[in-house]
Amino acid sequence: MDVDSKAQPFVQKTDRGLDSFKRSMRRSVRRGRGKSALGAVLRGVLVSASITVISVAVFALILNWWDASDRAITAINQVVKFVSILAGVVSALNGQTQGGTARGVCVGFLYMALGILCYCLLMGENPSLTSYLADLGMGVASGGLFGMILTSRRSA
User: Fold this and answer.
1) What is the pLDDT of residue 154?
2) Dist CA 108 CA 81 (whole Å)
């Protein structure tokens, strides 16, 4: 019997088509889901903090031309915090369909703790403990709520 006429079961295909590309993409997506939750939460906090810094800088430029009341400034600051936490939770979830509430709570808590720390360092003031706890509570509640809503929408 000839060597050429024997069946060779493990002959490598040289033609790599679209099916091969799709299989490799599915494998890489599966591997990407195993990333650590801590890394995702830290990425979410960094996204939140960067959005806050950019928003506050733009708002400060706007305040040069607009004479806003203290109530308006406080309200806009709260909106900036909520939008930043929402963006951070979206970044921390990164397509996950489970654990959104926990990741949202962690992002909200760490974001607000970082904000309180920066405020104390920059202003040199120590607000009351109730003010700290109210800010942390708002971060935890809004982060958890955003995480819950986003994971329930993705899993449905």
Assistant:
1) 67
2) 10
Tokens 């926990």 locate to: 102
CB 76 within 8 A of CB 55: no
Contact status, residue 48 vs residue 88, Cβ threshold 8 Å: yes
Q: Whole-angstrom Cα distance, residue 68 to residue 91?
A: 32
Q: What is the pLDDT of residues 98-137, one digit of tens each?
A: 888 999 999 999 999 999 888 888 888 777 788 889 999 9
How big is the CA angle at 62 (ends 125 and 119), to the nearest 5 degrees?
A: 15
Task: State both tokens at 33.
Answer: 């889901």
Amino acid at position 40, single letter: A
Distance (Å, whole) CA 51 – CA 46: 9
Find out whether 65 and 37 touch, Cβ atoms under 8 Å.
Answer: no
Q: What is the pLDDT of residues 49-67, one digit of tens each?
A: 999 999 999 998 998 888 8
